[in-house]
Amino acid sequence: MRLTKTLLISAVLLMSATGMQAAGFNQNGNYLTVQLKQHQNFGPSQIRLQVVSDKIIRVQATAEQSFRNKQSLIIVPQNSKANYKVEEQGDNLIITTAAMRAVMDEATGQITFYDLKDNVLLNEVAQGGKTFKPFIVPDREIGVDIAKVPEAQKHGWSWRALFNSPDNEAFYGLGQHQSEELNMKGKNEDLFQYNTKVSVPFVISNKNYGILWDSYSYCRWGNPEDYLQLNRAFKLYDKDGKEGQLTGTYVDKNGQKIVRGEDSIYFEYAMPEASEICNKTDKGGIQNLPKGFALNGSKVVYEGYVEAPSNSFYQFILYYAGYMKVYIDGKLVVPERWRTAWNPNSYKFETPIKKGVKTPIRIEWQPDGDVSYCGLRVAAPRSEAEKNQLSIWSEMSPDMDYYFIAGQNLDEVISGYRTLTGKASLYPKWTLGFWQSRERYQSSKDIEDNMKKFRDLHIPVDNIVQDWNYWKLDSWGSHEFEAARYPNPQAMLDSVHAMNGRFMISVWPKFYDTVKNYKELDSKGWMYHQAIKDDIHDWLGFRGSFYDAYSDGARKMFWRQMDENLYTKYKFGIDAWWMDASEPNVRDCTPMWYRKALSGPTALGTSTEYFNAYSIVNADAIYNGQRSVNPNQRVFLLTRSGFAGEQRYSTATWSGDIATRWEDMRAQMTAGLNYSMAGLPFWGMDQGGFCVENRYVSA
Predict the structure, then answer these.
(1) Measured between alpha carbons, how far is residue 692 from residues 310, 366, 368, 580 in Å?
(2) What φ, ψ does residue 175 adopt, rounded to 5°?
(3) Which residues are catalytic?
(4) DSSP E strand boundaries for 69-169
(5) What pTM does this model have?
(6) 259-317 tens-digit pLDDT
(7) Which helix (H) or strand (E) is 210 found in, with range?
(8) Measured between alpha carbons, how far is 670 from 338 in angstroms, rounded to an integer?
């Protein structure tokens, strides 16, 4: 007969601060902490379970001897009222609520979630379900302000959570991604923020549960390892059969030809020449092209053979700007795709390749402009069983921290997500109407004339949008209308409202270093400096950077500057805010490590640890700022990025600067569906696309 210890926990006891000690665990309120009996290498030493509600259980794990204190950016304060039962059966700690049951092996830390009929909802793999590796932020990722970062903030953990998954399971969510994938089962997805890419650390299953992990760093769904250069995954042969390389043939617009061997296809990034933190041993992107080769009007072909180490469906990622096609084994596996050079895209595909067979490969690249990008990498092959597991990897966090959310259906799962991260705020009714935006209205006359034309044509436009550069050309971040083009902004706003319209305006978290607002923020240490140090100029030719939205003081100052120059100044006549480039996009087309250097360090820690959450703290600034000065007007924000919990700040997200091609229209369908299933209710897209091929642009 097995000895069973049982504790009945009431809602009253959940609020108790008195610790309760049982045989294998320590209880404090609704937290149950277990010191594992078997501490395996790279495994956790402690696990803490929190009963949040009947349908939500939080799992924390650490490889350290105690849990660090931390403040969540995505979880709102919880008022737990769950009744639940705790019991021990041998090495198993069992928590039973009114909706589900969680069983943890106190020896190994493995956790399994059941419904009340003993059906398994989700279970961690027995060996390696929770793994940790110490992570120290490289100096180059911290950048020029490294002296600001305490030593403790440089240290964290890379962790991986791994779960079993039956063959008939499907996964949805993860945010907005552009590879035409809806069911993410067996797929790989790198989770970071980028123009046209929005990453959300939440996934739902057709088995009626969801997992929300509280991590802000770069993450990976599926394969936790880097994609490999072709020469690390395959034996390469050129078109004549010589081992070790593919053949690259470059023909410029004048017919001049260069032929050379290529050991990888990696022409992905442009780096500023002034960057002193650039590790010169790294491949530098487009610098790898033949010296002096003019891209514009050229045609490039990479061809030869790959020999695979095993039979597998190989998973590739193509990084591209210009026109691209890929053939493998004579089959067109990537029909023509195009993207503008200032906003490259990535596209995932998979294809079978047989072991030990020289399989033909051909990559056709037609650059479209003076700058263009091209890269092809492949994931190391994994078994089908490995591909089908639920795998989450986080680059840097203080601990592993995820919430298991159960429901009778997916609506209940999303409801649990909103319990944790906040309710979606109610929008003004007009936001569900027709908006008019173009790149861009250049004067108040443009705005008023176009609004009147819509009314004259009986087109029921509800909102007209002022895009960027309404300020003086050299004054990005001033938040001021240029007087020569907008002589009376108040009259313009009054005119729009008199025509029963609404007015949305673009405000970036970006400032030229010459403007007063930059200097005010910088005086408090609230500006990122790497772009200034590296003398990076934007496409207009001016130098600037982004403010540190992770600082509460910076957020308040950012809003005050908006308020003084726009909102209160014009009698609350601005109806909505377009928060562009909120990834943050300090500079396009740079490698991941340099993007981190450009956007940090933050007031909370390194940008490595806080890489993905900028848009939610920036939204906080505007939402709570407007509510502080005008609590009776509903707030509405349009943002180019998003993160878990952002719905509580009255935000909608649009899918960024997509191309005007059918493959991009197709990709928005799955992108928008998965974004919405990641718990964020309002999403949209540029209906006609944004980036236009040069062949369609008139001189």
Answers:
(1) 41, 16, 11, 19
(2) 105, -155
(3) 580, 583, 657
(4) 84-89, 92-96, 100-105, 111-115, 120-124, 130-136, 155-164
(5) 0.94
(6) 999 999 999 886 554 344 433 333 344 667 888 899 999 999 999 999 999 999 999 99
(7) strand 209-213
(8) 19
